[in-house]
Amino acid sequence: MKVKKKLHLWYTLTATGLKTRTIYRASAWMASFWGMVTFLIQILIWRSLLGAGARFGTTFEEMLTYLMLTQIIVFLINSSAGLQIRALVRTGDISVYLLRPINLKTLLFFDDLGKNIFQAIVVTLPICAVLAAYFGVVLPQDPLVYLYVSIMLLNGMAMLFLYRYTLGLVSFWFVENPFIEWHFQNIESIFSGAVLPLWLCPAWLAALSQYLPFRYFTYEPLALFVGKSELSVANNILIHQYIWLAALFALERLVSTRAMRKLTLQGG
Amino acid sequence: MIDVKELYKEFKVFQRPDGVWASVKSIFHREYSIIKAVNGVSFHIDNGEIVGYVGMNGAGKSTTIKMLSGILVPSSGSLTVNGIIPYKNRVANAKNIGVVFGQRSQLYWDLPVIDSFMLHKRLYDIPNDVYAENVKHFTDILQLGNFIHQPVRQLSLGQKMRANIAISLIHNPPVVFLDEPTIGLDIVAKAAIRDFILEINKQRGTTFILTTHDMNDIEHVCQRLILIDKGEIRYDGSLNNFKQSYGEKYILTCQIKEFKAVPQSELFYIEEKTDEKKILLFGDKSKISVSDAVNYVMKAYEVVDISIQESNIESILRQIFTQ
Hints:
Chain A is mainly alpha-helical. Chain A is built from eleven helices and no strands. In chain B, strand 6, helix 7 and strand 7 (about 205-210) form a beta-alpha-beta unit.
């Protein structure tokens, strides 16, 4: 019964997030439109670079599959928790959020999830399907790959949320400096392979990324999906994900308690 | 029910310096000053009371409410609400209280009012029958019917406030904090809110703590008054006692032709409003009768118009705070 109620609450929170995203239809469509234009330009650049056949050890179809999935997943595991917290602190509306009998993290997580489901599934996925049908993509044959990729992506989503949420909490100390978060997001997008797949990056950068959590967000699952890494290393990657997940969780707890203490000392 | 003992709250405030060089220096070394927002406040509130918590801007009213809501941690002192220490148990406390911050909205800006209600149903785990009954009841007495399906951003201030008050009570909390619930509202909307508070208090025995700058709110709704000034309690007791113990006061408002230097007297207090060409005389019948005061003013100034306002809470408070 308790579980059912929890699920019901999570569903309502997600639905509320999704609904708020659907209100501004024009802006949702415009954002998708420009997102797709940029995406299309990226595709065309890669097509002219790679042409027909493989170069840099990559075929155009592999590249396209990677880019497309990155696009969908980035939307799906996007988190505006950081931005939201900053805005709430600045306007003082954080006090209204703290009046609710629920912890802030749960509230923001499901709100994000609702918004992401709308953006990724209602907007981005159909457009990608059309593009995929036109250009062609590679799909793995082994069902085990799908299983591993799904698990890894779920882990990746949790990691990204924790990372962004923790970063957002840091805004309690730097209310007047939005750039802190911006720098961290740039680091994230480079080392997570969202700009350029890591297999195409310089060796030193790829080596450095081994010591950071970012590649485990989306890069590793997608590399496995398009055949850039083998199933034999999949378990190893999962272990890395869980270690990082634990580390991020610990960091989030640490920052969270301090931020809440600071907030409740200063006043919402 | 609510127990507050020797409650203190201090804020460390960064002193922003003037001038470019000083502000560069402040990156390395900052000067802070300590503000005592709440300075040793104690009170006890029983079930079913309606208490007016009154004071000037910055007196420490909202800070107290925030501590009672679990949003702020006190610097020292103890407080419990329904036996729960709010700042140690924010979520458990939140289930037992309803809060309205008149300056903020708890409703989802982009969504219809009813969607926010629905979300609160899940958040507070309200049984279906209780939820249905409350929505119907509140819709009737607060007249939410014609806008409950409209997005919040399209509502007027009064409609938003009524919806906020309804949502703060939708989970039947035993204690409700209303922080300036009538701010910026017209007379009709204010009256509707006052009646609503009285009705809920009568029906359910809900305890209300009301902060407001509108003394009519206090006079219509509250039985008890707590007066706070610079973080300290100046008065705590029944409304009637308050009126009596502060004497029978009145205010003369006089429109005058021109100002003259008139010495203040120990018998009354005169406030000059130069831009409006008005003087306000705060008097006390035990010291000087209304007719004597009128005579005095007529002699001292060239009076164009005069009106007499008998004592009410507002005039008493004005006198306390301005002297």
